[in-house]
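RECORD TYPE: inverse folding
INPUT: structure tokens
STRUCTURE:
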């Protein structure tokens, strides 16, 4: 089995590795590292994927976020349940959190594909109506089917509405 050796460096370690010749270079490197820190922190805080050159991508785990929301519930359950009851309860919470995170991930993938597919309409709605309306519009466009017009169904529907209006007006 291969083990990954993870090395952690702070700002001072990085500056020592680079062997800066002047304090100006050290300040420049410190500024670059600080900018990376801020960029990564903001990206993760906003639930976005952060790309770090030569390292990879980072993102906040949806599953961990859902499980963290249940920590208080688990803490209370541990106080008031027996060990076996708590084990079973924790297992149920774990499965529920995993399923919820999976559903959220699936919806995010669907929305990403829909934004690409309906890019022009999405951008127009985003500018004119806002993000929430644009997201709702493309989501509904992906989920609902267009029903072709049927004259018989339309006639039957109008007949039902007419009968309901007559009974209300009496």
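DESIGNED SEQUENCE:
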């Amino acid at each position: 089995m291969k083990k990954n050796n993870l090395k952690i460096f702070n700002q001072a370690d990085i500056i020592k590795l680079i062997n800066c010749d002047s304090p100006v270079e050290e300040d420049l490197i410190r500024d670059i590292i600080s900018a990376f820190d801020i960029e990564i922190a903001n990206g993760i805080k906003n639930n976005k994927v952060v790309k770090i050159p030569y390292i990879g991508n980072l993102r906040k785990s949806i599953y961990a976020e859902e499980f963290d929301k249940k920590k208080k519930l688990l803490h209370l359950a541990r106080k008031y349940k027996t060990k076996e009851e708590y084990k079973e309860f924790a297992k149920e919470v774990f499965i529920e959190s995993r399923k919820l995170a999976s559903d959220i991930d699936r919806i995010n993938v669907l929305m990403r594909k829909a934004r690409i597919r309906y890019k022009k309409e999405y951008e127009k709605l985003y500018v004119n109506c806002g993000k929430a309306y644009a997201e709702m519009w493309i989501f509904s466009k992906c989920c609902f089917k267009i029903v072709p017009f049927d004259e018989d169904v339309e006639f039957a529907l109008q007949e039902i509405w007419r009968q309901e209006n007559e009974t209300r007006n009496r």
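NOTES: The two ends are 82 Å apart (CA to CA).
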